[in-house]
Structure formats: C-alpha cells, structure tokens
C-alpha cells in the first residue's frame, strides 16, 4: 500500500510538470526566457547610402515594441547610421537577449550595441519571481482535472497489467516452461504500463515528450548494459537454456573439467553437486559455450582399467581368463561384450587394457569397476598369471637390526585387528547397487529449499 501511494504521488508530480511545461516552458517561468525565441537573423548586406529618416523610424519602431513588454519598458533606444544603442536596466539575462534580437530583426539595422545592465536589486526581482510562481500555480490548478484523469488512466492500465501478469495458467498455455511463462507475464505488465503512459501523455497533449523520454531511457539502458553485460548475458543464456534443456536434474555431467550431478538451473548459474558433496556454481554463459559431457543420458556406460602381465606368459590365455572372469561379475553387461586387448609393451611388462559396460540405472558404475579389477587380479593369481614385479635398487645400512625389530612390531600390531569385523564387511564389498547419496541430496534441496529451477521435465531436451 505504501508503494502504491508513493507511485501515485510521483505520477501526479510528473504529469503536473508535463502539463505546465506544455502550456509554458519551465525555463520561461523561472527566467523569463521564451522557448520559441529564434536566433538572430543572418547579417544583411550594408547599403552605401543611409537616410537619417531611417534611424528615426528604427528608433520609433523599437520603442513601440518595448513599450508593449513589461520587462523591456525601461530600455532607452538611440540609432545612428543604422547602429542601435540599447541602454537602461533590465531584470534578467533573458530580457537582454530578447531586446537584442528585436533590434537585429528591424530592417536597415547594421549593428546592435548592448549597454544594458541587469538589475540585481531584490525590490524588482522578488515581485517578478512571485508573479511567475503565481502564474505557475494558476496554470496548475486549471490543469488539475486533466492531470487527475491522466493519472487515473495510467493507474488503471498499471493495475490491469499487474493482474494479467499474475495469471500464470494463461501463460503456461503459451509456454510449458515456468521461467518463460513468468517472463511473458512481466513483459505483459510492462506493455500495459507503456500503453497507459502513452494514453496519459496523449490526453495532456504531450505525446512528443514520450520520444524524448524513450531516447533518454535508451541511452541510460545502453550505459547500464555495458556496465552489467555479464549479468545480461547470463540472463539471456538462461532463457535459451530453459527453452531447450541440455541436461536434466540428477544427470552426472562434465563441464570443462567440473564434474557433478545437476542440482538446478537458475536464471544466473548452473548448480552441480560433486561426488564428494560440494556445490559447484557455474555461470550460465560458461555453460552455454562449453562442451558438456553427459554421463547419464545414455544409461549404458563403459569403464576401463589396465593390468600388467609378465612377458613369459601366454597373452592369449591371459586375455581369455580375464574375459571369462568379467562375464561372471554382476553388473557387467553381456552386450556390448567385454573386451581385453594388449595395449602396449613396456620393458618386461605387457599392459592389458580391459573394457566393459555397465547399466548405470541398475548398478553403481564405480562399484562394478572396483569389483572387476579385484576379480581379474584374483583369477590371475589363481591361474598363476603373475604381474611383473618392480625392480628396486636396495642399499644396505648398518641399522638393519633396529629396522627389523620395528617391522616385527608393526606386523604384531596388525595381527591384533578384529578379523570378525572384517568378515562382516564382505557383503557390503560385493554390493553393486546404485549409490543414490548425491541424488537424494539434490531431491531434498529441491523439495525443502524451494529454490529457483529452470529445469523442467516437460521442456524439450537436446
């Protein structure tokens, strides 16, 4: 209610100024300067002959003009050979300019010599100011009904636009996206406000003023646009991303090296939650320009790992053993088939690279990969397929006995570990179900936080 009253008062003051300025320019009310004053006429060609009768006619005509104007009545005029001399006291600079202009416009005037003095005494200037204020008040009172009617028209359109902008169901029929629907509502409100301003100015016969206002607003908007261009760019990009979502909530994506599950898309940034639970905020302008890797869009995902095999072993047999083991691991798909290739030969070490596929909607990607590495290592040990041992250069010192005693103490401490607790973890180790920790965190934030989110299941996806 307070904001409404402030808006009404501001509008009344604004329309009052417009109406008065239309009837009589504000600068004239304060200084006596006429807005319709024209610049002095261009210089005329000076004739060779000049009659004294012309000087008297010029003087007479100027005195007649000055006698009709209150601010110029006290000016004395003398003319000699077409040169006009103006003397006396006047109350403003504007009156001085008008007197000179009148003199220059008289035919046969060669030059105007200004000897006028502006009177600064309060006895003359104060009554003049009171007179101007009185004139201003009378014009304001006379135009008050018109100003009130213009204000009423503007307020009606402002309220109507505000009411329509709140009809979200109407705009949802145009766009299923909440963000776009809200944006259309704001645009509708702005259009109605603009219509109300145009009609109000038209009633006050001041439509031409709207062009000046819009021009000034354009210059101001351009300056502000340069100052906050990054924010404006983010907002525009947010509209484009909300129209066609490049990802969905809970998708695990990579944006220029930043990985995480998508929590939400706001009007300024995309929020990811990393696997370790941290929030990552990426400006939408960066998201729009970046190369995005979506690991969730295709539920089937491939993993790989390397394992070393000694050069003395049959490599084909090692490949067959690894593939046979992979086919028995829960979570690894039979189609596409697992793959084991000889990747490279490095010294005495043959690197075998294992490829396998996981359905991420049914099994956890990292758990299946971990189980695959462990199982292949175990089956290699059982098949007597050894991995090359690293070669170290050992240097013996004189503190061997002390070192052996320390190692023996560490082994004895390790043996005291509760073996029963380790056995209880076996089931958890072999658990291949999907880890929903981050997804549950995202769902909780979106439900409890009630934060802005431009990602909508009904919006087309890329």
Automatic annotation (TrEMBL):
Membrane-crossing residue ranges in chain numbering: 140-163, 183-201, 207-228
GO terms under cellular component: plasma membrane
GO function term, MF aspect, one: mechanosensitive monoatomic ion channel activity
Leader sequence segment: 1-23
Function according to Swiss-Prot or TrEMBL: Mechanosensitive channel that participates in the regulation of osmotic pressure changes within the cell, opening in response to stretch forces in the membrane lipid bilayer, without the need for other proteins. Contributes to normal resistance to hypoosmotic shock. Forms an ion channel of 1.0 nanosiemens conductance with a slight preference for anions.
PANTHER family cross-referenced by the UniProt entry: SMALL-CONDUCTANCE MECHANOSENSITIVE CHANNEL
Assembly and oligomerization: Homoheptamer.
Family classification: Belongs to the MscS (TC 1.A.23) family.
Record protein name field: Small-conductance mechanosensitive channel
Lineage: Bacteria, Pseudomonadati, Pseudomonadota, Gammaproteobacteria, Methylococcales
């Amino acid at each position: 209610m307070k904001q409404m009253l402030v808006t009404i008062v501001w509008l009344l003051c604004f329309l009052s100024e417009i109406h008065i300025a239309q009837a009589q320019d504000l600068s004239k009310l304060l200084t006596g300067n006429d807005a319709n004053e024209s610049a002095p006429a261009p210089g005329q060609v000076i004739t060779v002959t000049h009659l004294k009768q012309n000087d008297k006619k010029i003087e007479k005509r100027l005195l007649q003009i000055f006698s009709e104007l209150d601010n110029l009545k006290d000016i004395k005029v003398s003319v000699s050979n077409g040169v006009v001399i103006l003397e006396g006291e006047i109350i403003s600079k504007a009156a001085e300019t008008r007197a000179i202009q009148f003199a220059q416009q008289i035919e046969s005037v060669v030059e105007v010599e200004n000897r006028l003095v502006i009177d600064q005494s309060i006895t003359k200037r104060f009554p003049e100011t009171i007179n101007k204020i009185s004139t201003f008040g009378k014009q304001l009172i006379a135009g008050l009904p018109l100003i009130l009617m213009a204000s009423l028209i503007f307020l009606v359109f402002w309220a109507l636009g505000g009411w329509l902008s709140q009809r979200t169901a109407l705009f949802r029929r145009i766009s299923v996206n909440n963000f776009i629907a809200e944006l259309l509502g704001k645009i509708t409100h702005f259009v109605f406000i603009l219509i109300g301003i145009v009609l109000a100015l038209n009633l006050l016969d001041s439509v031409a003023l709207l062009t000046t206002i819009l021009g000034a607003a354009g210059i101001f908007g351009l300056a502000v646009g340069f100052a906050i261009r990054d924010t404006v760019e983010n907002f525009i990009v947010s509209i484009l991303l909300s129209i066609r979502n490049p990802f969905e909530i809970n998708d695990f994506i990579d944006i220029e090296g930043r990985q995480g599950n998508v929590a939400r898309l706001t009007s300024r940034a995309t929020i990811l939650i990393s696997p370790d639970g941290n929030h990552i905020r990426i400006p939408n302008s960066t998201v729009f320009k970046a190369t995005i890797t979506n690991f969730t869009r295709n539920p089937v995902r491939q993993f790989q790992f390397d394992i070393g095999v000694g050069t003395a072993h049959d490599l084909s047999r090692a490949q067959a053993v690894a593939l046979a083991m992979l086919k028995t691991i829960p979570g690894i798909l039979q189609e596409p088939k697992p793959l084991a290739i000889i990747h490279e030969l490095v010294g005495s070490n043959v690197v075998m690279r294992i490829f396998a596929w996981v359905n991420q909607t049914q099994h956890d990607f990292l758990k299946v990969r971990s189980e695959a590495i462990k199982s292949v290592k175990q089956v290699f040990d059982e098949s007597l397929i050894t991995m090359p041992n690293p070669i170290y250069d050992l240097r013996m010192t004189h503190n061997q006995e002390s070192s052996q005693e320390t190692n023996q103490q560490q082994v004895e401490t390790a043996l005291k570990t509760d073996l029963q607790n380790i056995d209880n973890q076996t089931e958890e180790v072999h658990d291949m179900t999907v880890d929903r920790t981050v997804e549950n965190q995202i769902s909780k934030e979106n439900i409890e936080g009630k934060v802005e989110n431009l990602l909508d299941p009904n919006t087309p996806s890329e």
